[in-house]
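Journal club prep — side note

Before the paper discussion, L.F. wants everyone to see what a predicted structure for a comparable chain looks like in token form. Sequence:
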Amino acid sequence: MTETSAKELWQKLEEKYMTKSLENRIYLKKKLFHFECHQGVSITEHLNGFNKIIPDLMNIDVKINDENKALLLLNSIPNSYNHFTHTLINGKIEVKYDVVSLL
């Protein structure tokens, strides 16, 4: 409330919420690893929620490779999409996030 410029306000917010502390890393990783699609939420909304967590992790220097991102996303969708998941990974050598995120 006391900051006079957008830059100063942004710096204060980063200091408070985007610290690279162990506590923050664990919180965001748990948020990602436990992320799941709930009943009544569209796949688009779910994907948007997933895509909000990834940059937060990147901002605190947590790197998640492309295949792990794809697998975490596939794991977070309901079992009713299992046929889709099997179709995406059947016969593939690797799974790419760009392909999976086209749900």
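L.F.'s comment for the group: The chain has a mean pLDDT of 87. Keep this in mind when we get to the figures.
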